[in-house]
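Usage

Read records sequentially. Each one opens with the input sequence:
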Amino acid sequence: MRIYIYGFPLDFSLSPFFQEHAACLAEHQILYTPFRGEISDFEKLLQDRECLGANVTIPFKTEVLKLCDRLTARAEAAGSVNTIFKSDGKICGDNTDGTGLLEWLKMKGTPLDKCAVLGNGGAARSIASAIFETGAEISIYARQKHGWEERFGRLYPLSDWKDECTTVNTLPFSVEGVNVVNIGYRFGEFNLDAVMMLALQGWLASKRWFGEKVVPKEQFISLAISHACAQTNKELIFNLTNRNFWL
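and closes with the structure output:
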């Protein structure tokens, strides 16, 4: 059985490593496979009987909406899909991004009564949607209006942001600040907030594919952190790719 991850680029993705590892420990025989191609070809893969579902990342989270027969309430509110699963023969879309991050913020005791979100792309919308459900006051800072912002908070120019409350940065670069949660990452450069969001949204996605037969949340987190540490260990990577290391 296969689970795919669809996006571009995928070269730095940790998901194939910890998802396969976690599935194996839960006694599921699956291949978690990156897919790079046209959305029409991705649709054919989803319809294959051997496909359990998929994760979807940038830039296809909104494009795959049209491939889903059903959407969860979270996906509808987020206006995007990062997890595809099957139920009763139907292709279903969910979004675990915001819920995964919210679970991490609660785990570390981050104040959520007042929050700011930097950026208003797909990830920002799913995060704002999840935080909005807690009753928090949300301010969204961006360069231009996309139209969804007023559903969850108030929109301000990006230049107006100040580090005054819990701030989730969804921009493609890190922002310094005492209250800032940076969720972006790239190959070899991970921060704990980004890894924990990735781990928890991944754990929630795995429950869509396997039901309750998944490793405990704490173990799933440990696997994600272990693989992130391995990828950031540049000396280890160099040794493993240096043929003299094996002599």
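Summary fields computed downstream for this record:
- The chain has two domains: 2-95+191-241, 99-182.
- Residues 243-247 have pLDDT under 50 and may be disordered.
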